Every structure is written in C-alpha cells, then in structure tokens.
C-alpha cells in the first residue's frame, strides 16, 4: 500500500501505516502491511478511520485476532476517531501482493 | 466493497477436549503395547491387539481428527461450524464409547458392554455427520474438497455401523459370512474411506495455504476421488459377495492410482510453494505419507503370504506410521493456534504477544520425530525377524515418543499470558 505525499491526510496515514506494521499474521510471522492485506486507509469520514483490508484465507481462524489487532493499534493513536475495519474479498489476496520486504522476510 | 463477516473460529470448549483426550489415548496405546508386545507376534485377531487397534483408530486417530475437523471445517467450507454443542456431544459419546469398547476388547467381554460402546460410537459419528452436513451446506459450484469431506463422513458412518454389527455378532452370531472377512472390510472402509478421504480433503486445502502454494488443477483431485471410490466400492462389494480373490489386487491398484493423484497434487503444490522454509511439524506430516506407500507396497505380501506377520506390519505402517505420523505433526500446526487465539485474540496489538510456534518446544518435536522413525524401524524389523527383544525395544521407543508428545501438548495447554507483558510494545 502506497501513500501519496500530496494526500491531505498524508501525515495521519503514515502514522497509521507505521502502527499497522506492528500487527502480525501469527502463522506467517510477517506484518499485515508487508503481507499486502491492507488495501486502503481512509480519513475522509469525520470521526472515523476506515481500514479496508482482506485476509489471506476466507474464514481464517485467526481473522478475528488480526482484526482486533488493527483496532488495538489504531485506537490509542487516533482517540478522536472510531476505527472501522472493513474486510473485503475483492480483489482476492494472493502471494503477489506481498511487498519486497515481506518476500525477503519469508525467504521468497 | 462490502464489509463482510469474516467468520468465527469455534469456541475452544468444542475443540480442545478432543486434543486432550486423544493425547491420553495415545499414551494409553503405548502402555498397552508395552503390556502386550507379544500380541504383535501372533494372529491379528487377538483381544489385546484389537483393543490396541481400536485405541489407535477411535481413541487417538478419530478423536484428534474430530477436534481438528471442527476447527478446520469453517476454513474448508467458508462457513461457521453448524453446532459447537453438537461437537461437544460427539466428544462425550466418543469418549464413553471408546473406553467401553477398548475395555471390552482388552478383557474380551463380548456382550452388552461391548455393544453399548459400539452404539455410543455410532451416535457420536451421527452427531459429527449432522454437524458436518450442516456446515458444508448446499454448494452450487463444484468443490472437490467438500465432496471428499462428505464422502469421508459417510464412510465413517458405514465403518462404525459395521463395527457395531460385528460387536453384536461376537456375542449373538447372526452374520452369515465369516467374522474375519467382515472385519477386513470394516478395517478397510475405515482406513481408506474415513481416514484417507478426510485427509485428502483437509491436506489438499491446507498444504497450499500453509506453504503459500499456487492453486493446482482441481481435476487431479476429481480423478483421485473417482479412483478412490471405485477401488474401495469394488473391493468391498466383490469381497463381500464373492469372498477374497486375486481381484483385490486389481482394486488396490485402482485405489492406489487415486492416492497417487492426490499425492501428485500435494507434491505439485509443495514444489510450487513460495515459502521455501518448511517447519518441523510440516516435515513430519509430509513424511508420514511414506508409510502409506510402504503399507500399499506390503499389500501383496498380506494377500499372497499366509504369514500373519505381514498383516501386523501392514497395520503398524498404517496406524503407527501414517495416521500417527500425520497427527504427531499436524497437532503442532493446529493446537498452538487454537490456544494462541484463545489467549491473545482480544489483546493482539495491545501487548507483546508470543507467536503460536512459541507455545511448543521445537526441540521436543525434533526428538519426537527421531524417536518415531527409530521406533518404527526397530518395531518393523522385530516383527519381520520375529525377535521379541527388538519388538520390546521398539515399543519402549514408542512410549518415549508418546511421553514427548504429551509433554509438548501439556506445555501448549498450560500456556498463560505472562504478567510482565509490555503494554506499549507490539508483536
């Protein structure tokens, strides 16, 4: 996921992005940003931070843990905003979405 | 873009009892082998050997597989588990049924207790089937993994029903065919219908997921399904109506072709994996399939040689080599995640959390794998060479494997969140 430097919420998005690097996929032991699970971060709605993301497998048993991890790292950083996590299946996640850093971590 | 439900993992009370009980049965099986190692040198229709085989098949294999299946069914079917309460009921029934059956075989008390054990196991399997069919639901597009799941449950129900009839027949003979012939059909329906088809379903879905493999052509699994069913149905029908004949080798070849396609599917996913590092539990799981092929290679000896040692070797390779090997590995790919999810789901990101793999000792798994290979090699040699000392040594090694496994499983079960967690840190 890339953040445009001209984005009016560039600073907030970078803060959120940095925090989301701390949420790990427990099976692959790689953070959800480098795994390519996060598609978008939006500050457009007032009092909300909306995370649009996916999971590597529908009905992943660890899906709830990853979702709560996202909320847990964002809430203290943006106390004035409600963290809303939207899970989507389109586009479906594939290993091609793993970042270069993620590939290095996985030894790909 | 929709905000969709992501599904919930089943509650731990619906899954963990199976792992706890299965582990105890595994240790019990090792102790029973130690107490009656001589049974491995005689005919397979020996009360103590029957007790050991049922401990392996019901108390250990089916028990752990039920637990893992309840956890993984939502992943395979992409739906929540139909009824966690029904899962718990199936546990209670299976536990009571297994204890009664195994005890009855060990002391060879045919009659009401053995039959009651058989009835409880059938009721447990019925509960499992209802839960499975409720979870699978109606699927409109072809899904070979779900088909294997449904078929394996149907074979399990068939197997335990025949088993119950055999238990009745021991006390009140009513089956017009020789008891041992039906026993052979009962065993193969369980091994080839229940265990193999369930393993085909779960492994073909999970292996590519764990190793980040690319999707492989589904037609290999479709052909595998067709060949496995054809081989098994023809074997059972022909053997029942016409008795055992050379044709069983033909059916075994058809069935083996089905296994080969399934294995080729796994191999292809393994070769195309992105994640190059394969952890030890996964290595042990994959290695277990070697024993399945060794058992198939033994099949002609079992049929053509009258020596019962080959039947015992055949059973050893399937129950201790293949099924136990697979469970010994896969336990550490499922149980730590269940416990980790239970403890850390809500606090993930808030506190420093360990990884699921930190919940067990990799070193113990390594020793367990070494002991497993050594034990089977020594046991197998002892049975073929008919050497009591080797058999006894192999059984002792097997007991060590069971203790190491139980130690590691207990370690996972007893995991607690540490008090000195770092509130500001992340994973």
From TrEMBL, chain A:
Coiled-coil boundaries: none
Limits of the MIP18 family-like domain: 17-83
SUPFAM superfamilies found in the cross-reference section: Fe-S cluster assembly (FSCA) domain-like
PANTHER family reported for this sequence: FE-S PROTEIN MATURATION AUXILIARY FACTOR YITW
Entry protein name: SUF system Fe-S cluster assembly protein
Organism the protein comes from: Compostibacter hankyongensis
Lineage of the species this protein comes from: Bacteria, Pseudomonadati, Bacteroidota, Chitinophagia, Chitinophagales
UniProtKB/TrEMBL annotation, chain B:
TM regions (residue ranges): 12-37, 49-73, 85-108, 114-135, 147-172, 192-213, 248-266, 286-306, 312-343, 364-384, 390-409
Annotated source species: Compostibacter hankyongensis
Keywords: Membrane, Transmembrane, Transmembrane helix
Keyword NAD (UniProt): no
InterPro entries, per database record: Cyt_c_oxase-like_su1_sf
Keyword Transmembrane recorded: yes
Protein's UniProt name: Cbb3-type cytochrome c oxidase subunit I
């Amino acid at each position: 996921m890339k953040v445009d430097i001209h984005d009016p919420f560039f600073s907030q998005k970078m803060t959120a992005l940095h925090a989301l690097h701390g949420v790990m996929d427990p099976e692959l032991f790689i953070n959800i940003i480098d795994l390519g699970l996060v598609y978008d971060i939006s500050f457009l709605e007032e009092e909300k931070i909306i995370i649009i993301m996916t999971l590597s497998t529908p009905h992943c048993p660890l899906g709830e843990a990853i979702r709560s991890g996202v909320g847990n790292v964002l809430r203290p950083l943006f106390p004035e905003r409600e963290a809303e996590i939207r899970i989507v299946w389109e586009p479906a996640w594939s290993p091609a979405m793993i970042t270069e850093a993620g590939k290095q971590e996985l030894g790909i | 873009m929709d905000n969709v439900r992501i599904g919930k993992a089943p509650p731990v009370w619906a899954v963990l009892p199976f792992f706890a009980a299965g582990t105890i049965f595994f240790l019990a099986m090792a102790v029973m082998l130690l107490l009656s190692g001589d049974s491995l040198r005689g005919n397979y229709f020996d009360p103590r050997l029957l007790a050991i085989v049922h401990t392996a098949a019901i108390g250990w294999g089916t028990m752990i597989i039920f637990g893992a299946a309840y956890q993984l069914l939502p992943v395979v079917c992409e739906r929540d588990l139909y009824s966690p309460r029904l899962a718990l009921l199936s546990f209670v029934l299976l536990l009571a049924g297994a204890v009664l059956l195994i005890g009855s075989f060990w002391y060879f008390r045919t009659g009401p207790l053995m039959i009651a054990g058989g009835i409880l196991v059938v009721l447990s399997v019925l509960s499992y089937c209802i839960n499975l069919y409720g979870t699978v639901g109606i699927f409109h597009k072809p899904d070979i993994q779900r088909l294997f799941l449904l078929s394996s449950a149907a074979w399990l129900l068939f197997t335990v029903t025949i088993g119950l009839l055999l238990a009745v027949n021991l006390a009140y003979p009513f089956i017009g065919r020789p008891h041992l012939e039906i026993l052979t059909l009962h065993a193969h329906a369980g091994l080839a219908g229940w265990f193999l088809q369930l393993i085909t379903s779960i492994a073909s879905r999970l292996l590519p997921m764990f190793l980040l493999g690319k999707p492989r052509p589904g037609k290999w699994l479709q052909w595998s399904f067709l060949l496995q069913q054809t081989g098994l149905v023809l074997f059972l029908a022909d053997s029942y109506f016409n008795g055992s004949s050379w044709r069983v080798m033909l059916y075994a070849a058809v069935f083996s072709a089905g296994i080969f396609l399934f294995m080729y599917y796994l191999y292809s996913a393994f070769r195309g994996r992105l994640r190059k590092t394969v952890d030890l539990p996964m290595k042990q799981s994959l290695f277990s399939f070697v024993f399945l092929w060794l058992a198939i290679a033994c099949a002609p000896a079992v049929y053509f040689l009258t020596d019962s040692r080959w039947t015992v070797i055949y059973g050893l390779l399937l129950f201790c080599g293949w099924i136990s090997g697979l469970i010994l590995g896969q336990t550490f790919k499922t149980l730590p995640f269940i416990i980790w999810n239970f403890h850390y789901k809500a606090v993930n990101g808030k506190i420093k959390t360990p990884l699921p793999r930190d919940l067990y000792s990799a070193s113990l798994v390594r020793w367990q794998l070494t002991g497993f290979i050594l034990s089977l090699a020594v046991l197998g040699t002892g049975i073929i060479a008919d050497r009591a000392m080797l058999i006894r040594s192999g059984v002792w090694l097997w007991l060590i494997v069971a203790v190491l496994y139980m130690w590691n499983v207990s370690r996972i079960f007893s995991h607690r969140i540490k008090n000195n967690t770092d509130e500001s840190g992340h994973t």
